[in-house]
Design goal:
Helix content: 25-40%
Number of strands: 18
Number of helices: 9
Low-confidence stretches: 160-168, 402-411
CATH topology of the largest domain: FAD/NAD(P)-binding domain
CATH class of the largest domain: Alpha Beta
Number of domains: 3
Radius of gyration: 22 Å
Order of helices and strands: EEHEEEEEEHEEEEEEEEHEEHHHHHH
Length: about 400
């Protein structure tokens, strides 16, 4: 493995594959390729370095006994809190894991050291072109042809994020976080707080996420479901101030770091691969629309792509999740849009009325129809029935209305 900038390495004219972007999805696919029969193929992992890994982290849950080598912390319990309930969710087979960016980078670097054909390249990708027999990528003005291109940034034929499944403005999770150190012991370092709803519920459903690395140091993050893709800015900062002061009772403390951003939530069918260009990561629909989590889905997708390449010589033999899961996500997002206060009680019931492993399996799309019905029946039905009616009517209108037959995908 080598990292290349303006050094002596000259970009080749043709390679077996190009991975565009070196975030969670690009690095994960590179790691899977490096551990497979592709370790001797010529693969470029291209990233412009605009966002480093040191300040990034991803969380996921898994029931596998094999833990990702990049995992820095694992938990067998977590908190869900509302104004009425403080519920400690206990896990049996599942674990809640945290992967820090620097650890993912280190793990992938180790894999690439044993894969002479895979090379990390510093460069800006300005264009991706699909083709029948090969694709091309323009890197800092130089065109590289490849049998396959894996696009994690959505550069090739980017999908509009302006509308959601029900034809409303698209939804997103907007977050503002601080890593703080308190003067006295404040946090439960053995159990993250996945959702704390003890904050003012404004225009969109809000909660606070707390991940402590010690009783005095934690990431405290305000998260809000919003329409559109704008970040929270000052309202999120103000809400964090109130939460720290009035809910946690934090007095003296120091801010060690900050973060903010948005995660787009799109329950539509993911954009399909092209002839030679395959979207991965968020660009490939790997973010779960109802939760904003994507790391575990990225790992499964990467493993499936590599297996398909090894078995069939192409990356297309990848399982498509049943459409019912997208429907569940669409209904939940519509309920959040319409009646956020009622959904707080639904999340409370979801975790209180069901074993923790069952909830995570449901959210991970690892359940049968019967199990899903059993979980859904524990939730308050009214807000979801109203949301289901809205989604069904609007989808029916889109199919039968004047846009039917237009080139836009019917969602």
């Amino acid at each position: 493995m080598s990292e290349t900038g303006a050094g002596p390495f000259a970009l080749p004219e043709r390679v077996d594959a190009v991975i565009v972007g070196a975030g969670a999805s690009g690095l994960s696919l590179a790691g899977h390729l490096a551990r497979s029969g592709w370790r001797d193929r010529e693969v470029l992992i291209v990233d412009d370095g605009s966002r480093g890994l040191d300040d990034r982290a991803w969380a996921y849950w898994s029931d596998s006994g094999v833990v990702d080598a990049a995992v820095s912390a694992s938990y067998d319990r977590f908190w869900v809190r509302t104004a009425d309930v403080a519920h400690l969710v206990m896990l049996n087979d599942y674990r809640y894991h945290v992967v820090r960016g620097r650890d993912l980078g280190r793990t992938v670097d180790v894999a690439l050291d044993g894969a002479p054909g895979l090379r990390r390249v510093s460069g800006h990708v300005s264009q991706i072109r699909d083709g029948a027999h090969e694709a091309s990528v323009v890197i800092d003005g130089h065109t590289v042809r490849a049998a396959w291109v894996f696009d994690s940034v959505g550069l090739e034929n980017p999908r509009s994020s302006g509308a959601g499944a029900a034809g409303q403005p698209g939804m997103a999770l907007a977050f503002v976080g601080r890593r703080i150190e308190t003067d006295v012991d404040t946090f439960d370092a053995g159990a993250p707080t996945l959702m704390d709803f003890r904050i003012h519920q404004g225009a969109g459903l809000c909660f606070v996420y707390v991940l402590a690395s010690s009783p005095r140091v934690a990431l405290v993050e305000h998260v809000q479901f919003t329409s559109g893709s704008g970040n929270l800015g000052e309202p999120g900062e103000a809400a964090l101030d109130v939460y720290l002061r009035e809910v946690l009772g934090v007095g003296g403390h120091r801010v060690l770091g900050t973060e903010h951003g948005t995660i787009l939530l799109d329950p539509r069918r993911p954009r399909p691969p092209g002839r030679r260009v395959v979207p991965i990561g968020a660009a490939g629909g790997m973010v779960k629309p109802s939760t904003g989590y994507g790391y575990a889905r990225i790992q499964r997708h990467s493993a499936a792509i590599v297996t398909s390449l090894a078995t069939h010589g192409h990356p297309f033999a990848v399982r498509t999740p049943p459409a019912r899961h997208r429907a569940f996500d669409a209904v939940l997002l519509e309920a959040i849009r319409r009646e956020p206060a009622h959904v707080v009680h639904a999340f409370e019931r979801l975790f209180v009325a069901n074993p923790g492993d069952c909830v995570l399996a449901f959210l991970d799309e690892a359940t049968t129809v019967g199990q899903e019905i059993g979980t859904i029946l524990t939730l308050p039905p009214v807000p979801f029935l109203r949301a289901l009616r809205t989604v069904a009517v609007q989808r029916s209108s889109r199919i039968g209305g004047p846009t039917a037959g237009h080139s836009r995908e019917i969602r």
